[in-house]
Amino acid sequence: MNQHGLDLVFLGLSLSSSWGNGHATTYRSLLAGLKHNGHRVIFLEREVPWYADHRDLENPAFCELRYYNSVAELESEHASALQQADAVIVGSYVPEGVAVIDAVACLCTGPFCFYDIDTPVTLRKLAAGDDEYIAARQIPFFDAYFSFTGGPMLTRLVREHGARRAEPLYCSVDPEIYRSQTESKRWDLGYLGTYTPDRQPKLELLLIDVAEQMPDHRFVVAGPLYPNDVSWPPNVERIHHLAPRDHASFYARQRFTLNITRADMTAAGWSPSVRLFEAAASGTPVITDRWAGLDEFFPAGEAIYCASSTSDVVEVLKSDECERLATAAEAHARVLSSHTGIARARQLEQHLMSLRGARPMELEARLIGQTI
């Protein structure tokens, strides 16, 4: 690795707080990988009361975390960092995202990229005329549009929305945090996720109804924002929030863990949740709903279990221990080989290197000097 590395600036929804969002853990893994690979990162986060009141990472060791209170403050206080960065990457759901993109586009001199952690949601919103965090006119601004979703949606971004190029940049996991542990099993099946109306029917079908049919088994659901009117069977334990530092231990105490994909991501396919990689890295086998592209990450019946009904889950929970451990081991190996933060950081480096023809020679020299 060349000792110089790159100076990168990210603007994202939140790095400091994982409360009620999946963006924080995604950024943490990627940025830790970039740090490991010799790069310097500044993360700019909008000061928002909700996240300020629920911070679980105030001083990250892998980047410099800075806050801003308005777009005007972003321009006045952080212009130098944006102008001097070798690349600037704006994420989805940044508050006042349209104004932020317009402002940053006028400041950055290196590659200007978008990282969409919500691509199917973004395209649905744009089709409805909703430009909450990006406007349709802005997509061609970016040298590269990095997407949490792969597959056909990448083609749509280019052909229908004018993206110069669209590349998959899936979520990842930090294996130093998420790793196999030897804790005793407390639950037969667990689920970790913030409440959303589109996921709740599947949670009821694939966990709550299973718990009612298997009263001698133990279940757990961890995550905030669940309505008070949700009926939890007595053998379902509730944890209202679980900080990322406790996720690996949480997975380790489950015989199986459940993954439920957001409706937009299910429809689009090729949208692996970070929970899949976290659980697999922790050595816990996953039961998931099925979606197109899943086998590219975890082949069903080999590295993951698929379920579409209550009875499907009941049968998986009756699996013998050898099968359970073999499935977990295969998923674990796949994550460590292809889906760590370091691996994802290398992919980002390669994408930035491919932009070198339109960038300053200094950036090109730095990128060519990297040992990836």
Describe this entry's structure for a reader.
By secondary structure, this protein is of the alpha/beta class. It folds into 2 domains: about 190 residues, 3-Layer(aba) Sandwich (Rossmann fold), CATH 3.40.50; about 150 residues, 3-Layer(aba) Sandwich (Rossmann fold). The protein contains 15 helices and 13 strands. The strands form 2 sheets. The protein has a 7-stranded parallel β-sheet with strand order 3-2-1-4-5-6-7, sandwiched between helices. Helix 1 crosses helix 14.
Portion in beta strands: 15-25%
Class of the largest domain, according to the CATH hierarchy? Alpha Beta
Specify the CATH architecture of the largest domain.
Answer: 3-Layer(aba) Sandwich
Radius of gyration: 21 Å
Largest sheet: 7 strands, parallel
What's the CATH topology label of the largest domain?
A: Rossmann fold
Report the CATH superfamily of the largest domain: Glycogen Phosphorylase B
Oligomer: single chain
- Placed side by side, the strands forming the largest sheet appear as 3-2-1-4-5-6-7
Mean pLDDT: 93
Number of structural domains: 2
Distance between the termini: 7 Å
- Which series of helices and strands comes N to C? EHEHEHHEHEHEHEEHEEHEHHEEHHHH
